[in-house]
Amino acid sequence: MEHSLAKHIPLDFERLTDDEMERRSRQVHSRLDARRSVRHFDSAPVPVKVLRNCIAAAGTAPSGAHKQPWTFCLVTNQEVKKAIREAAEREEYENYHGRMSDRWLEDLKPFDTDYHKPHLDEAPALIVVFKQVWEPGLDSQGGKRQNYYVQESVGIACGMLLAALHESGLVALTHTPSPMDFLSKILNRPNYERAFLLIPVGYPTQDCLIPDIKRKSLQDILVEFE
Q1: Which of 19, 38, 105, 178 is most buried, judged by most C-beta within 10 A?
Q2: pLDDT value for 113
Q3: CA-to-CA distance for 211 and 207, rounded, in angstroms?
């Protein structure tokens, strides 16, 4: 059986000197090392063009068989944000009062969190990321069109989204009020999509505080084989 190939074009790539690569890599690490998760958001609106650009950047992520199995819902409507907060808090109440193990609750203590999630309607925008567990439409045999490596693909896109938001001068929080079925209902998403991540986005309050915690060192996360 012959396989048709996609049209191939020359790669647009500039090879840098070792010194320039090292300089840029230091800068990238320094900028991203300043990124922190924030739970205290100023209500000031964010330029929607900036958010769209960041989502477009996330959409450049690699994906299994180039299926691009993601949908980004940008929510700035206050009533919709309120509905999401109320539904999330109902789920989080159950999490904090029985679903979470004692060990889990103990690990969360340094972050001073509970089931109250005011940041979900205080932040000027929410980005709700959905994974497409199969592709819209039917295949030639009338069955579902398969997507591949969906978790990995959408996870990579979310990481690129967080980096883009930070590089654009915004703060964000990764929020997973499991289970998240309520997001599909509130946002009226099709049955081939599943909620993956809820990201409040905006500016920090002037008195915003964050936990005084440290990231693992390079020596703790890197194993080299020479």
Answers
A1: 38
A2: 87
A3: 13
Q: Is residue 214 in some structural domain?
A: no
Cα–Cα distances in angstroms (integers) from residue 42 to residues 124, 171, 174, 215, in the given order: 8, 10, 17, 26
Domain residues for the domain of 95 are 37-204
SS3 183: helix
The DSSP code for 110 is: G
Q: How far apart are CA 21 and CA 107, in angstroms?
A: 38
Question: To the nearest whole number, what is the mean pLDDT of the chain?
Answer: 93
Average pLDDT for 57-66: 97
Give the torsion sign (CA, 101, 178, 210, 159): positive
The count of structural domains within the chain is: 1
**Cα distance between residue 164 and residue 137, in whole Å:** 31
User: Rounded CA gap, 52 and 59, in Å?
Assistant: 10
The whole-angstrom separation of Cα 69 and Cα 151 is 9
| pLDDT average, residue stretch 72-93 | 96
Is residue 12 domain-resident?
no
Range with the poorest average pLDDT among 12-21, 70-79, 93-102, 182-191? 93-102
pLDDT surpassing 50 at residue 1: no
Does 183 reside within a domain?
yes
Please give the backbone phi and psi of residue 108, each rounded to the nearest 5 degrees, phi first: -85, -15
CATH number at residue 121: 3.40.109.10
Whether 32 is in a domain gets the answer no
